[in-house]
Amino acid sequence: MSTETAPDGDPTPKIEVTASAADEALALLESEELDTGIAGLRLFVQQGGCAGLSYGMRFDEEPEDDDTVYEHHGLRVFVDPASMNYIEGSVVDYEDGLQGAGFHVENPNVVSECGCGESFRT
């Protein structure tokens, strides 16, 4: 397991998480009764959607051996090596607006997205 703690204000982290996304994820982790000091949010890319790739997120109790682990605003984020190839440089945010609430990934590697915004191509 590779550990990279990205302190707030560091201009070079490979994955960033906004404070609002971290707050929401930490609240969800606590509601699942998971230890926020060990457990974290897994961010991954999977085949699917009309553009070919889609994001996935879930909570894991601990990272896998080959994961890179980031920590932002108290939230641990786990990324596997294959997914990192697609999402390096991304920012995870939480949006709560008129069209609903949810996590959103702003990925600088995306060259096109499907019309609904659920899948992408790099």
Automatic annotation (TrEMBL):
<protein>
    <submittedName>
        <fullName>Iron-sulfur cluster assembly accessory protein</fullName>
    </submittedName>
</protein>
<dbReference type="GO" id="GO:0051539">
    <property type="term" value="F:4 iron, 4 sulfur cluster binding"/>
</dbReference>
<dbReference type="InterPro" id="IPR017870">
    <property type="entry name" value="FeS_cluster_insertion_CS"/>
</dbReference>
<dbReference type="InterPro" id="IPR035903">
    <property type="entry name" value="HesB-like_dom_sf"/>
</dbReference>
<dbReference type="InterPro" id="IPR016092">
    <property type="entry name" value="ATAP"/>
</dbReference>
<dbReference type="InterPro" id="IPR000361">
    <property type="entry name" value="ATAP_core_dom"/>
</dbReference>
<dbReference type="GO" id="GO:0016226">
    <property type="term" value="P:iron-sulfur cluster assembly"/>
</dbReference>
<dbReference type="GO" id="GO:0051537">
    <property type="term" value="F:2 iron, 2 sulfur cluster binding"/>
</dbReference>
<dbReference type="GO" id="GO:0005506">
    <property type="term" value="F:iron ion binding"/>
</dbReference>
<feature type="domain" description="Core">
    <location>
        <begin position="14"/>
        <end position="118"/>
    </location>
</feature>
<dbReference type="Pfam" id="PF01521">
    <property type="entry name" value="Fe-S_biosyn"/>
</dbReference>
